[in-house]
Amino acid sequence: MGKTGPCSKRSLLHSSSGMRYKLLQEGDIQVCVVKYPRTFLSKLLTSKFLRRWEPHHLTLTDSSLVSATPTGYMEAPLSYSTIEDLQLLSWDNAPKYCVQLSFPGGTVLLQAANSYLRDQWFHSLQWKKKIYKYRKVLNNPSRWDVVLKEIRALVDMALTSPLQDESIHQAPLHIISTLLAENTNLSAQDHENIIVAIAPLLENNHPPPDLCEFFCKHCRERPRSMVVIEVFTPVVQRILKHNMDFGKCPRLRLFTQEYILALNELNAGMEVVKKFIHSMHGPTGQCPHPRVLPNLVAVCLAAIYSCYEEFINRCSMFFSVCFLLSRALAHAKFTKYLNISFHFCMDAAQVDYKAAHDIICGEFKKLQGSPYVGYSSDLCVSAVQILCLMLEYNIIENKDTQLQIISTLESTQVGLRMYEQLCDRQRELKELQRKGGPTRLTLPSKSTDADLARLLSSGSFGNLENLSLAFTNVTSACAEQLIKLPSLKQLNLWSTQFGDAGLRLLSEHLACLQVLNLCETPVTDAGLLSLSSMKSLCSLNMNSTKLTADTYEDLKAKLPNLKEVDVRYTEAW
């Protein structure tokens, strides 16, 4: 399955993607209205008797251009439907920085303060006018072959727009959501055609709630459809990497759940599910996505929870969690979830681990002698994995309980084998620490400055070359610890609170740093300029920071080895 995601790097040093603009919702501009036939317009505009100009604060609503002071030229709103043509005014001797709006019987001129603002008004008005047209056309569809062409044109318009705004991609998706909700009698082929048509918009955007509902239905009704693999896979990958809280967008979780169930319906379904999970959060992953693990756990445990929701509502939270663990282990229906959720859940679920241990050991022993053992082998393996994780991460501190876990593991061949592998790993880890520590290290999400300091003081990290603190809670304060890592070459600070003060300290002490990821951090020009002393930098990610174009040019000039740069969603883009 293909991999997508914002951590894939894009070299923009030699890019010529063109100017980008924020979508205007309102602004101040000079207005002039010429109510004459168009044949006289050129002559009037170039004459010395220029028409009168009025200052207005205009708002671009969904349907019209409205002035905050409805007087003079803008006494009444100007509906987008009455605008016949929209273009930049570029005649010789014409007024500077003007956008021309032609309507029946006249012309409206909008004069901006400079060429950039003029172009921003032009593209924003053009977008508002076109999206208004598509809403009208797709609100009352007649022929579906025509509708599909309009949808493709709408998607293409959104993808090629020079406007840089989340709503540029979200507005078409909401229009199509409404279309699908109001036309429930479409054929399965119509559904697939529409999904394929909007697929490019979903590569970098979460589907809105109504569209998630439609996707869930498609996964349930046509799980073997190629749309599930070819279109939904990158969408679900993006959800797992980017979602911050399923509580705020539960339909994204439901869609992810239905997608995993659809994968399970394919030939060798469980193997397909496992491959998908490994592609997202496996040991061979080239770049870590710390949000993936808690999101997978949330999806899987919520799926199990939903089946026992009525019972759980009558129980205490503590008993509910323990009940889920025990019942899930004993229920064959959830095999498809357990290979995913139990592999990760002890990392994320906040439960009483001693109680969980007692329940898992008990259920594990029951499974060994139960008539369900034939179809519960996967469940037994999952239980063993949990017990090994409890030992590996020192979740159980009581020595007697640890001995009980070891005894339980040694009671079966699979348990004995996994326990021996755990012992081997721990011996290798101690030997690695003695020789100077690991070369790569990734801290779990929610780690803090104190966690990092405690970890780095617990052993030897002189060999550490690659450190990922992505999606943790570290701040600039952790720079005091980072500068003590003499071999550090790659540092990932994606989506942390690491700021300018930390950057200045890094630039003074980590001259050998080669790869630095500052995506979605609060750094500004003040801190970024200090990076000019780090001559070894060859890859720098400043995506979604407060980088300006001037600072970007300065860094390019002063960092001769810089080959990969990501400046998307900044002023330099």
Automatic annotation (TrEMBL):
State which gene encodes it: LOC107559802
List residues traversing the bilayer: none
Tell me which SUPFAM superfamilies the record gives. Answer: PH domain-like (SSF50729), RNI-like (SSF52047)
GO cellular component: a single term: nucleoplasm
Query: Which Gene3D superfamilies is this protein grouped with?
Result: Ribonuclease Inhibitor
Instruction: Show the Pfam families listed in the entry.
Output: PH_21
- Which organism does this sequence originate in? Sinocyclocheilus grahami (Dianchi golden-line fish)
**Official protein name in the record:** C-Maf inducing protein
Q: Locate the C-Maf-inducing protein PH domain: which residues?
A: 20-138
